[in-house]
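Objective 1b: paired records.
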Amino acid sequence: MKLAKHTGRPSEDRKREVVSRTDAAVLMIGSAVVAAVTTVMSVVGIIGLLTGPATLTLPVDGGTRPSGSLGIGAEAHFSAVEATIPALPGTEAGLLAWAAVLTQVAVLAFLALLFLLAVRLRGAVLFTRGSVWVIGACGAAIAVAGTAGQVLDALARTRLADALGLNPDRTPGSVLFEGTISLVPVVAGIALIFIAGVFQFGGRLQKDTEGLV
């Protein structure tokens, strides 16, 4: 008895997509919309800082202060105040504006990474030089811009607190927010750079195995 010869096209020969076209399209559109919205919000915020008035949370050193209104013997102290300033000094306004710009750059770098990876996932072309460059560049942008933005923001708020006389008994510039600098951008950036290295290695393996299967 002869077995019927399978004439259908092998499933291995079919081009399989890592994600569906619909999923990729949704991710691309979502990334673009979020990028546009956050950019508009960032621009509006910067204009508000430069034109005033601006309401900002500033660091203060109030010391430990017992409070009779707290239960179980707890004590409270002030580490920040919210101040409304009619017009920010030029230097501090510039620092805050640049901080907002750098923070938005980090956000856009992350969204651009999502967008471009969605495009490449849609076509199942991940391990390329382009992917390595995109991931590495976005990781570096997130690490540098995200951290620099936080530093400028903290510096500007500290200078404003000193200018308003909120910390008269302390050396100017010595009072900062507790935990004001987050290491998340640095960690995320380093992780993406390592992932870029993995993609580069994957690209080499893909070239070595081309034609073997």
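Objective 1b, second protein:
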Amino acid sequence: MSDTLEMTAEPSPARAGMTALLAFGILLGAMRYVYVNPDRYLLVVAGVFVSSLIYFVVSAIRAGILYDIMKGFLFGAVISAIVEAIPVLDVILTIAFLALGFLAIFNTVKNMLVEIILSFGMFFTLSHIHMIGTGEIIAGPHDLECLVSAFSVLALITCVRVGLRASGVQEALLLLSLTFLSIPLVTILLVSLVASARSSSRTTVSTKRVSVKQNVSSHMRAPAFSSTGFKSIYVRDYTRTLTKTVTVAVNGAGPGIIGMGVTGAVSRKLSGKKR
């Protein structure tokens, strides 16, 4: 099983270059469409995200990312069972999982940093073209031309990178989808890791009956009637056992440990894809 999102199609750099060239034309067409029809901006953005997400999910399934998710889930479940059996390991394992999770996300951000910058730049310029077209912001004499030029340059850089790095059409499309989804993917991974960390441990409160020993000091028992009349009885000190109900708090593993295992597995899968 491959550790990266690799495609199994026969490599074809020429086809990858043609795919990148076609993508560049589509991006320019989308930008011009927003330029002419600024009210259709959300439609264009939604189309880019949805198509990228569909292709990414299909590619991830083909590359075995579900297998890695299951491994992360099972690994988290095993750790959770260990913590339940040995509660003293709760803090240690939670910190270790957090460190590994944040390290995996850090590597993902580092490897996808260029894609994140390109994606942010394209959507930033496209959104400003939209706002100028709808009159939400007042542009200067050459602001619109500068934004169009900036978007074109960013789109060209993106497609050239894809053409140089991809070995086939499928990988070129995958790299494009990763570029457009880079910011949402990293955000989702980070949010899921933080949410998992918050629920990584749980405290349950319960009651149970316990036996406790109580020391009784020597004392004189109250006068009692006997054959010789009323007289006090001397009682020596002794120890007696009592049963009482107490409230206890038990720390154990929460569902977040499993979530951290899954998040880390996905992050490592994405990190491994970047060349």
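The longest strand covers residues 201-216. Residues 169-198 form the longest helix (30 residues).
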